[in-house]
Amino acid sequence: GAVVSQHPSWVICKSGTSVKIECRSLDFQATTMFWYRQFPKQSLMLMATSNEGSKATYEQGVEKDKFLINHASLTLSTLTVTSAHPEDSSFYICSAPVRLYNEQFFGPGTRLTVL
Amino acid sequence: GESVGLHLPTLSVQEGDNSIINCAYSNSASDYFIWYKQESGKGPQFIIDIRSNMDKRQGQRVTVLLNKTVKHLSLQIAATQPGDSAVYFCAENYGGSQGNLIFGKGTKLSVKP
User: Measured between CA atoms, how close is A1 to chain B, in angstroms?
Assistant: First the structure.
């Protein structure tokens, strides 16, 4: 199967700072990637769809100026949480669909803790 | 099936027993359904999928049943093992496997040795 990686796997930051999370497709090209957020004991909620070479599409209620998404290459999408606050603390997971396998592959997730 | 609850339903089974995990999906137009397994601190792992033109699909030790009439999906795990302990999510989509997924609430499966 295909492999999706995320970096960092966990990060702790101070309130008001910005944090960048990377999502990489290691052995395939991804024109589309999805970003999800998961709070403790809850399900995954789609935040946005990242499109290579164009603007991301955000779900209703997700602030595009707060969660900046850049998909500058076919193997990398980044999510930047700007001016992070404690309520942004969550598990952020990316995924990429792979036509060859007719399946979506998920990254291992990034645990963000904002103090 | 968007999750808004603070507590995951829990299913506790004895090792070797069969497990059945249920899911109600929300969109009658959804035509593709997937079951994922998520271990603590990790991303979801694909288990099995089914398309809306099927009622049942079997994999290794797992079976997915789809009832479109009542918008219900179930995952059956045969001879449950301690390694099966995890949170299980169903997900739905319309338009196939390449689009964004809507995840159900999740069920925590605990397997007692």
Answer: 11
Tokens standing for residue A115: 């103090």
What distances in angstroms separate CA A5 from CA A36, A79, B24, B56, B106, one per listed residue? 14, 13, 31, 32, 23
Q: What is the mean pLDDT of residues A50-62?
A: 93
Are A36 and A95 in contact by the 8 Å Cβ rule? The answer is yes
Q: Are strands B45-51 and A110-114 parallel, antiparallel or unpaired?
A: unpaired
Q: How far apart are CA B13 and CA B111, in angstroms?
A: 5
Condensed to tens digits (0 to 9), the pLDDT of residues B44-90 reads 999 999 999 999 999 999 999 999 999 999 999 999 999 999 999 99
Partner residue facing A104 (CB), from B8, B97, B104: B97
Contact B3 A102 (CB under 8 A): no
Residue B2's SS3 state is coil
What is the DSSP code string of B38-84? Answer: E-TTS--EEEEEEETT-SEEE-SSEEEEEETTTTEEEEEESS--GGG
Q: What's the gap in Å between the CA of B61 and the closest CA on chain A?
A: 20
